[in-house]
Design a protein that fits this description.
- The complex is a heterodimer of chains A (about 300) and B (about 425).
- Chain A has about 300 residues and is an alpha/beta fold.
- Chain A is about 35% helix and about 30% strand.
- Chain A contains ten helices and 14 strands.
- In chain A, helix 2 crosses helix 3 and helix 8 packs antiparallel against helix 9.
- Chain A is elongated and about 80 Å long.
- Chain B is mainly alpha-helical.
- Chain B has two domains: about 100 residues, Periplasmic binding protein-like II (D-Maltodextrin-Binding Protein, domain 2, 3-Layer(aba) Sandwich); about 230 residues, no CATH class.
- Helix content of chain B is about 70%, strand content about 5%.
- In chain B, the strands form two sheets. Chain B has a four-stranded mixed sheet. A two-stranded antiparallel sheet of chain B has the order 5-6.
- The longest helix of chain B is centred in the middle third of the chain and has 39 residues.
- The radius of gyration of chain B is 32 Å and the shape is elongated.
- Classes of the chains: A alpha/beta (about 300), B mainly alpha (about 425).
- Chains A and B meet through strand 6 and helix 2 of A and helix 1 and helix 8 of B.
Chain lengths: ~300, ~425
Amino acid sequence: MLKAEHITKTYNAGKKVALDDFSIHVPKASIYGLLGPNGAGKTSFIRIINQITQADSGDVFINGEKLNPTHIKDIGYMPEERGLYKNMSVGDQIVYFGELKGMSKNDAQNEAKKWFDKLHIDQWWKKKLSELSKGMAQKIQFVVTVLHRPHLLILDEPFSGFDPVNANLIKDQIIDLKNNGTTIILSTHRMESVEEMCDYVALIDNSKKIIDGRVFDVREKFKKNIFGITLSEVNDSQLDTFKNKYEIFNLSNENNLVSFDLKNESDQNHIILDLVNVGKVRSFDERIPSMNEVFINAVSNNS
Amino acid sequence: MNNIFLITKREFLTQVKKKSFIILTLLAPILLIAFGSVIGLMFKANESHSIIEVVDKSGLFKNQLKSDDQINYVFVSAADEKSKINNLKGNESLDGILILPELKSENFDDLEQNTRLVINSKIGFDTKQKIVSDINNVIKKEKIKQLGIAETRLNNLDKSFTLKTINVSENNKEDSDLNFGVKTVLSMLLMYVTFMFIIIYGVRVMRSVLEEKNNRVVEIIISSVKPFELMMGKILGVTLVALTQFFVWITMSVIGAVVLNTGFSSMPKNMPGESEGMMGKFDILQMGSQISHSLLELNFPLIIFVFIVFFLLGYIFYSSIYAAIGSAVDNETETQQFTLFAILPLTLGMYGSFTLMNNPDGPLGFWLSIIPFTSPVAMIARIPFGVPAWQIALSIGLLLGTTIFMIFLAGKIYRVGILMYGNKATLKELWKWIKG
């Protein structure tokens, strides 16, 4: 749905590089995570898609069409630095933002009513924003972002400042939107939300893309063929023979449960056959790194 | 274009709906009148009315020393002098006793030396001066009488000379002092209104920019519209707010004037001192008709045209500066060092225009009304006196060009500034933004 090719962006007359030859491909109806430490260039990229700033070189295509002002109406953007007018009523505000995205007043009102029902906030229409709590304001913020039925939704740190209940509510709405065909780009440095929600991910560090692909593939790529094993009713002499055969570390023995990690490059089924003699296998799993570990690993390798 | 309209509409409606705006708009004229009356009352309250008893041994001053609303002269006989002075202490109904000695062999110097004013409390400087001048007038008349000149001939001598000025470039019209005064007042009024509106509403634009920045709403908006559209919509919205306030105040003044006018004409006519009152009224009426005559002689279509053009262009010129300032900082306290750039040239133009009254066509007036930074106020100040068409055209051309250029520069600063948080931009950085 969205393709970015060789995007380069610099500030201060080339002294500060924000994006360096950055390319990604975001498939339709997927959630695409942009990961990276603060200042990596995520927001710069997002602002280029939103046409707030322009890239020095490189192109962005949406559905095969080169990025142009007509795309603005098709994008919903929730920036990291976000807020609303304090002295305007919720309803006026939502209609105003809808109109700025090219909706008619009626259309904006009707669409807003649907969202208000969905989020159970229909009694707030006439209230001023200054009368609402922070959590309430965040719901309004989300409605403002999705009101004009954008096909591309760009969320920059969407859960920062949300309480867990609201975060969950919004997360469900985002997944709903994806299932209905909306493409979502989600920029964050909170790894757990990436694992839970994202189908694809790109890691940015120091203005460069380090790795990208399906979340599953990225994690697979960073796995180190380490298996975690827990046994009960262990035969000590058999364990010693096993130890000599394999590379074992992190050995512990608690409550008559022996657990250890094992590095193995060959077929893991052989290990299981050998383990049967040592004791009863309680658990056996391959240690797939979490996104967090992938992230830290990738960033430290890069620097 | 549609976006600018939407932003203008929002800006206008939110500002006009604010309680503070409604209250200020309705109360300001009333407060202004109340304030004026209080100042008037203060002056009135400080005016004293003194009662002075006069012991006139010379006999010259009786009937000559006339009482008025400042001093009431009461003549008493010389025989009571001693007891009067004794009673003066502690006598609150009497402010002093003036003792004029006998005039011996026409020696006025001797009279002066022996004249005394006995007082029981402090006497105001004004009152003392008044007594001195009253005595002086009487003595002057006496001295003239001694020289043998009739008073009527003397009055003739004092008559002032009126110089009629005829302006050949304006259809040989007579250029009276009153005419000049009317033009001056009109010119000052228009200039001051422009000056105040530019500053007050320029700051309003700046505040509104800052508000959006502080609310963090700005990035959401510029993902839908261009920063330039946002800035222009804001400036235009505030312009409409200014015009609304202007319109309300003018309507209120007109209604006020009509109400006051009917109140004035329905006052009882037969009042004590009517002859004097009639005389005064006649003067006022005559002067009023002369003023309206002078006003009607002015080229109003031109004045209104120039006023509107320079008012709007000047306002947009300075508002774009204010918008840029608002975008470059994080809060209002930080704006101060930058607002100096916006206020200083305008203030220069205003004070320059005060001196311009002496010679509206002089080099100072010319340059102030041509240079775009000062021309919005200076040209408006000059226009009632008449300005050659080529100067108006040149000035409008320059101002229009600079305004467009300034909007362009401000747009560049604004575009970068609104997305910068946490640090105040330096002038060097602003320059970089403009170049970038």
